[in-house]
Amino acid sequence: MMTRRIAFTVNGKDHTLEVDVRESLLDVLRNRLDLTGVKKGCAVGECGACTVLIDGEPFDTCIYLAVWADGKEIRTIEGEAKEGKLSRVQEAFLEEAAVQCGFCTPGLVMTTTALVESGQSYTKEEIKRELSGHMCRCTGYHNIIKAAEKVLDENAGKVHDCCGKCHQ
Predict the structure, then answer these.
(1) 57 and 12 in one domain?
(2) Does some domain include residue 92?
(3) Is 92 found in the same domain as 74?
(4) What are residue 14's DSSP bridge partners?
(5) Cα–Cα distances in Å, from 134 out to 41, 83, 145?
(6) Based on the domain organization, do 70 and 99 belong to the same domain?
(7) Contact, 143 vs 97, CB < 8 A?
(8) What pLDDT score does 100 carry?
(9) Is residue 164 part of a domain?
């Protein structure tokens, strides 16, 4: 087995690990860092259940090698609530009943968070396209799209404390 030492930040906490060069970031997050909000769905990059933000961009961790995360900033669903308060995206998902079984929800929340933090405006069709890498077998997507639209509309043109990257 060939290993490599990597250092990265997850939800604001620095980590240094020795990883198998073939190990997925999904397996490292779930099995080594106990971040089980990152769901193992299809394991081939099709369902989006394992989506996290890497340097602010959504990625499927099942097809992202852990060694590629060296030096990166990673955010998982566990890092979204602050001091026991849900993020606005998480609240919108609850308000719009966009959560049923919850398996796909972390990945959808993370992708929606990336959209909000981009500072861009999105049409309904663009939101659908951006979330198209996620499979949900429970909600039928209508409420998920409503939740994303709601929080994007609320945040249009604002600069956010979360990332400082958004545009006015």
Answers:
(1) yes
(2) yes
(3) no
(4) 9
(5) 10, 28, 12
(6) no
(7) yes
(8) 86
(9) no
Residue 16 lies in a domain: yes
Q: At 94, which amino acid appears?
A: L
Rounded to whole angstroms, the Cα distance separating 15 from 6 reads: 8
* CA separation, residue 105 to residues 7, 25, 49, 166 (Å): 28, 19, 7, 24
Per-residue pLDDT of the chain (168 residues; tens, 9 = 90+): 899 999 999 999 999 999 999 999 999 999 999 999 999 999 999 999 999 999 999 999 999 999 999 999 999 999 999 999 999 999 999 999 999 888 999 999 999 999 999 999 999 999 999 999 999 888 779 999 999 999 999 988 654 555 555 443
Strand order in the sheet with 51-54: 13-20, 3-10, 73-75, 51-54, 57-60
27/131 Cα distance (integer angstroms): 23
β-bridge pairing 73-75 and 3-10: parallel
Residues ≥6 apart with Cβ < 8 Å to 47 = 41, 104, 107, 134, 135
Please report the pLDDT score of residue 158 as a whole number: 58
**What pLDDT sits at residue 164?**
52
